[in-house]
């Protein structure tokens, strides 16, 4: 494996202060169904508080960052090249430093010089510098550095081999390490609106699928053994390609771009001629199917289920960042977001044990990089940098939130010549019911309602709204059911309990989760009766029986829905 391998991070997005309750999770039902990011409630019902529930905002993580960042500021990159400059720059920004920081600005300047030199004699025979510089500039300001990003992408297109791989030139072997960065660069550039040839992405996707070991892992090259770092590289690349081709949960929710929007007319966006010229959200695959890609991803997941560890012989932090990238793109593709996953908890504890007194980390076998690079990798893992990049590219820019790439500011909705220019935000129960009843296509984006719908202050109107919401828990539309359950859950009214108990048997786990948390909130039983995440039918039934028993104990004449 090359000694100058780098991993690439992505965009920064502020994260709300951490908490130590285990947050509710959301899961897809029925395979690749439409999905939005989890709408989270504040109660962790049925799940005890844990000392291992780390997030990038946890005090334990911040303590490590408080030592690592001064180390990076003092040491810099010690002249390991453009890629190292960019890794350190990205680590600083992900950890909260301003883009005006001298080391960040130095990395930008290095990237710009490289972009101006690509294609000339004397450029390195590997693509790490180009790929990491590309991702770094996409993170920093894709509009300001669009010309440089485009130059780097074009250089990568020329470097890529006909079989889809990247490697050292002029050697004949293919290189999983470099190819993962090529794919990641394509993703970052595409999200930034820079054209990326679909054929090059598909060639890389096919290469990763061909080179996967029969056991589910990946090798650096054919003559090497399967390793953790290369398996994370291969699996993250498979998921990235899946997203580029629209094979994931977010794409399924949004629908094919050529198809007519499934949203109600009031939420459809009219494209301008300028918008039609923009790079499409997803590339078109001609010979690669979602089934093929996701089967390979499943095999890779199975490999890690058997072999997961951070105790690897070499390239530890390079591997950890690659693993964080894999898990972040898995979250995006499968529509499952876990706030405090075990793999992150384990990684935090591993890094706690291995951080040096000066704040650095280092890895065996990585003599060409040195502690600054590996410290940057560790920081990128701790800050969930890939997750932040994905959130920046898919959520903050309005692709997932608000639906169908709509603008973030929805306050000035208006109709012009019979066409909706910006969507009308649904704010209360009556708005939702009117929307659902006024269109044959009863689709609605519940993600725009992170805390549920607003109820009327008037008692008579409120009572009527609640009655209609209780009936909505059996609506055929998932989004309507979720919006109804979330609103009932925050009402604190015992009359809503039967509907919430009924919702525990919903086919979508996100609805079950919201109902469970609502029951905990109303009952003030914060440990609750479950069900646990990903429950069996028996566990669901047991939880329902317990909640029924509690409800009838305090309201013996209560009427249950089933």
Helix-strand blueprint:
Blueprint: H1 59-75, H2 82-94, H3 102-117, H4 128-140, H5 146-159, H6 176-191, H7 198-211, E1 218-219, E2 226-227, H8 228-244, H9 249-254, H10 273-276, H11 290-307, H12 316-334, H13 342-354, H14 371-382, H15 385-396, E3 414-416, E4 419-422, H16 429-437, H17 459-472, H18 478-489, H19 497-503, H20 509-523, H21 537-554
Antiparallel strand pairs: 1-2, 3-4
Helix pairs in contact: 1-14, 2-3, 2-4, 2-14, 3-4, 3-5, 4-5, 4-6, 5-6, 6-7, 6-8, 7-8, 8-11, 8-12, 12-14, 12-15, 17-18, 18-20, 19-20, 19-21
Shape: elongated
Q: How far apart are the termini? A: 61 Å
Helical run tally = 21
CATH architectural arrangement of the largest domain: Alpha/alpha barrel
- Give the total of domains: 2
* Class from helix and strand fractions: mainly alpha
Largest sheet: 2 strands, antiparallel
Account of the protein in words:
The N terminus is likely disordered. With 562 residues, this protein is an all-alpha fold. The strands form two sheets. Strands 1-2 form a two-stranded antiparallel ribbon. Helix 2 packs antiparallel against helix 3 and helix 2 runs parallel beside helix 14. It starts with 58 loop residues before the first helix and ends in an 8-residue tail after the last helix. The chain has two domains: 170 residues, no CATH class; 338 residues, Glycosyltransferase (Alpha/alpha barrel), CATH 1.50.10.10.
């Amino acid at each position: 494996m090359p000694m100058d391998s780098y991993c690439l991070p992505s965009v920064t997005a502020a994260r709300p202060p951490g908490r130590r309750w285990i947050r509710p999770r959301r899961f897809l039902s029925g395979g690749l169904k439409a999905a939005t990011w989890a709408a989270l409630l504040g109660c962790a019902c049925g799940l005890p508080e844990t000392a291992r529930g780390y997030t990038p905002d946890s005090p334990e993580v911040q303590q490590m960052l408080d030592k690592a960042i001064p180390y990076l500021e003092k040491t810099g990159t010690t002249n390991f090249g453009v890629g190292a400059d960019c890794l350190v720059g990205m680590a600083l920004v992900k950890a909260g430093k301003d883009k005006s920081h001298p080391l960040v600005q130095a990395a930008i300047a290095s990237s710009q010089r490289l972009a101006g030199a690509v294609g000339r004699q004397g450029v390195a025979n590997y693509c790490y510098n180009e790929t990491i510089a590309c991702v770094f500039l996409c993170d920093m300001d894709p509009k300001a550095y669009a010309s440089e990003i485009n130059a780097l992408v074009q250089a990568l297109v020329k470097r890529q081999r006909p079989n889809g791989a990247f490697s050292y030139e002029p050697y004949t072997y293919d290189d999983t390490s470099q190819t993962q960065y090529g794919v990641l660069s394509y993703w970052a550039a595409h999200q930034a609106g820079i054209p990326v040839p679909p054929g090059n992405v598909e060639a890389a996707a096919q290469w990763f699928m061909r080179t996967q070991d029969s056991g589910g892992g990946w090798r650096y090259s054919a003559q090497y053994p399967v390793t953790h770092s290369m398996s994370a590289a291969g699996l993250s690349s498979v998921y990235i390609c899946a997203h580029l081709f629209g094979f994931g949960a977010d794409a399924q929710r949004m629908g094919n771009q050529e198809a007519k929007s499934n949203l109600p007319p009031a939420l459809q966006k009219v494209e301008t001629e300028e918008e039609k010229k923009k790079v499409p959200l997803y590339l078109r695959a001609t010979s690669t199917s979602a089934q093929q890609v996701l089967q390979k991803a499943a095999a890779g997941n199975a490999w890690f289920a058997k072999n997961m560890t951070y105790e690897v012989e070499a390239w530890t932090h390079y591997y950890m960042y690659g693993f964080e990238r894999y898990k972040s793109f898995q979250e995006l593709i499968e529509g499952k977001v876990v706030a405090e996953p075990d793999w992150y908890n384990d990684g935090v504890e591993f890094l706690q044990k291995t951080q040096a007194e000066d704040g650095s980390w280092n890895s065996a076998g990585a003599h060409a990089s040195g502690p600054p690079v590996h410290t940057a990798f560790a920081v990128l893992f701790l800050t969930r940098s890939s997750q932040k990049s994905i959130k920046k590219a898919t959520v903050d820019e309005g692709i997932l939130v608000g639906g169908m790439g709509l603008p973030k500011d929805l306050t000035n909705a208006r109709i012009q010549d019979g066409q909706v220019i910006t969507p009308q935000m649904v704010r209360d129960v009556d708005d939702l019911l009117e929307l659902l009843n006024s269109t044959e296509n009863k689709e609605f984006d519940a993600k725009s309602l992170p805390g549920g719908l607003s109820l009327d202050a008037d008692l008579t109107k409120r009572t009527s709204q609640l009655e209609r919401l209780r009936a909505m828990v059996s609506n055929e539309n998932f989004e309507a059911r979720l919006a109804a359950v979330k609103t009932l859950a925050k009402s604190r009214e015992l009359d809503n309990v039967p509907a919430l108990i009924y919702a525990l048997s919903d086919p979508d786990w996100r609805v079950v989760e919201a109902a469970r948390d609502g029951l905990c909130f109303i009952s003030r039983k914060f440990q609750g009766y479950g069900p646990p995440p990903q429950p069996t039918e028996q566990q669901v039934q047991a939880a329902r029986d317990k909640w029924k028993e509690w409800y009838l104990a305090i309201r013996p004449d209560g009427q249950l829905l089933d």
